[in-house]
Design goal:
- The structure is a single chain.
- The chain is α/β, with parallel strands linked by helices.
- It contains 19 helices and 14 strands.
- Helix content is 49%, strand content 11%.
- Helix 4 links the parallel strand 1 and strand 2.
- Helix 6 packs parallel to helix 8.
- The longest helix has 35 residues.
- The chain is globular, with a radius of gyration of 28 Å.
- It catalyses: D-threo-isocitrate = glyoxylate + succinate.
- This is Isocitrate lyase.
- InterPro entries: ICL/PEPM, Isocitrate_lyase, Pyrv/PenolPyrv_kinase-like_dom, Pyrv_kinase-like_dom_sf.
């Protein structure tokens, strides 16, 4: 017996015990329960954490089973993404949502657009999680509502075959609710602040929280300069804070993604505390750039001196008070960061790189896996990369190593449209097409995401509409390039009243008021023009 049928039977039993005094229909109760499967954000977090853990195990067994997501900055965007996934791919398996701190800062702050520097309101993050799941739950209710209306029509027509087919869709309905990987930046303060925000995010529905090892009040976008990292002890305290939040709220298999920005971060705000040679603090300090000194005469007023490698080291300090790391130490620091995070409670890694290069990523992951064999990554397929130029240059470099004739190409001009039909460009596009599959297989990437794609698609589609509508095409600019395509591609949103919930409202009015219900979906509803 399906959950829908179980709920209908239970409701009927309850109503019978009340002598039908409530005037409530048991099937309508079962329908409303089906349309509101998840009663709270914690229900969602527990449900999606289980999904994510199963996906991680599937990837460990077969790297072809990697997962993907797109960053969404509004509940409607996330909803339309999942509706499209169900329409085009039939299954939501392995497809998540990503919540980007960059897009929260740029699009959701009450201060207006902000850079990705943790200056936005911290509760905007948990607020967006709640909003995304509100829209995804509404997508469930809308789709099921359509099935219920079809079921009623089949019954009214006496078509038992159609009724059974529709009932099967209801009984085996696949929810739009999927895991969200949610960006908590560097924790928005100390470890207590991190814990409090993590709790709010989990209560909103987050089963997976991503946290980075930058200084909270110096945080920078991973693709900008000036990044400052913290000693491992500071970062691990925040990882523990997130784990405590999961456990307190009963999300025992919640997932933590530990992000390291060390590859591009050349600065630290503080020298790590160390108690003995070779401990974590000592290893962190061993990467400091500076000069060894032999006497106090070599130390100026205000200089800091650290004992490292059995010698006195005077670290290089900038006028800002920040300390520099040795040039070229980034990859070694990344490997240490990742191993340390996995050994102290993190589940997944995020290595922020400056380019999408499978070999570079694999080189670091292979070193990590020498210590933690099942280490795996969440990877940012970032719009900050010039994918076209990067891959064309990678192909050119590979061909040069293979002694192929590359005289027809100029490395710094490869973005040019004149190369678009060239063999080099075709090979580059082929590598871009298979990048996720290749990196999942060769570089330990479990989850591929694009942080802010819908930021760019919104800008691009708006630009195209403005160009046409305010230009010579006028209204045809909208009709030909938006509405006609919506109709022919079967975009559900073309019936925008239905998408906004008008039909669900009519269903409820009928439940509540019967024949007296004043419904919106009558003959004069212009949405009927769309079939």
């Amino acid at each position: 017996m399906s959950q829908y049928q179980t709920d209908r039977t239970a409701a009927q039993s309850l109503l019978d015990s009340q002598g039908q005094s409530w005037g409530v229909n048991a099937e309508n109760v079962a329908r409303m329960k089906a349309q509101n499967r998840f009663q709270s954000g914690l229900d969602i977090a527990r449900y999606t954490a289980k999904i994510m853990r199963e996906d991680m195990a599937a990837y460990d067994a077969d790297p072809a089973q990697y997962t993907q997501s797109l960053g969404c900055w509004h509940g409607f965007i996330g909803q339309q993404k999942m509706i499209a996934i169900k329409k085009h791919l039939t299954s939501t398996k392995g497809r998540y949502l990503y919540l980007s701190g960059w897009m929260v800062a740029a699009l959701r702050s009450e201060f207006g657009p902000l850079p990705d520097q943790s200056m936005h309101e911290k509760t905007a993050v948990s607020g967006l999680i709640e909003e995304l799941y509100t829209f995804l739950r509404q997508a469930d209710a809308r789709e099921l509502g359509g099935y219920f209306r079809e079921l009623d029509k089949a019954r009214a027509a006496g078509d038992s075959a159609a009724e059974a087919k529709i009932q099967d869709k209801i009984d085996n309905f696949q929810t739009h609710i999927v895991p969200i990987i949610a960006d908590i930046d560097a924790g928005f303060g100390n470890e207590e602040a991190t814990y409090l925000l993590a709790k709010r995010m989990i209560e909103a529905g987050a089963c997976c929280i991503q946290i980075e090892n930058q200084v909270s009040d110096e945080k920078q976008c991973g693709h900008q300069d000036g990044k400052v990292t913290v000693p491992h002890a500071d970062f691990l305290a925040k990882i523990r804070a997130v784990r405590y939040a999961f456990l307190e709220l009963g999300v025992d298999d919640g997932v933590i993604v530990a992000r390291t920005d060390s590859l591009g971060a050349g600065l630290t705000k503080q020298i790590a505390v160390t108690s003995e040679p070779g401990d974590l603090g000592d290893m962190y300090n061993s990467f400091l750039d500076g000069d060894y000194v032999n006497s106090a005469d070599e130390i100026a007023n205000g200089d800091v001196v650290v004992k490292a490698n059995g010698k006195l080291l005077k670290p290089k300090r900038l006028p800002s008070g920040l300390f520099q790391f040795k040039p070229g130490s980034g990859e070694d620091r990344v490997v240490l960061d990742c191993i340390t995070s996995l050994q102290h409670g993190a589940d997944l890694l995020w290595i922020e790189t400056e380019k999408p290069h499978v070999g570079q990523i694999a080189g670091m992951v292979n070193r990590i896996r020498e210590v933690v064999p099942n280490a795996k990554l969440v990877y940012n397929n970032s719009p900050s990369f010039n994918w076209t130029l990067s891959f064309r240059q990678q192909v050119l470099d590979d061909w040069a190593e293979q002694s192929k004739d590359i005289s027809a190409y100029q490395r710094d001009q490869l973005m040019g449209a004149e190369y678009d039909d060239s063999p080099l460009a075709q090979e580059a596009d082929s590598r871009i097409r298979t990048f996720q599959r290749d990196a999942a297989r060769e570089a330990g990437i479990f989850h591929h995401l694009i942080t802010l794609p819908t930021y760019h698609t919104a800008a691009l589609s708006t630009d195209n509409l403005v160009k046409e509508y305010f230009g010579a095409e006028g209204m045809l600019g909208y009709v030909a390039n938006v509405q006609r395509k919506e109709i022919r591609q079967g975009i559900a949103c073309v019936k925008h009243q239905n998408m906004a919930g008008s039909d669900m409202g009519d269903d409820h009015k009928e439940y509540f008021s019967g024949d007296a219900a004043l419904k919106a979906a009558g003959e004069d509803n212009t949405m009927n023009q769309f079939g």
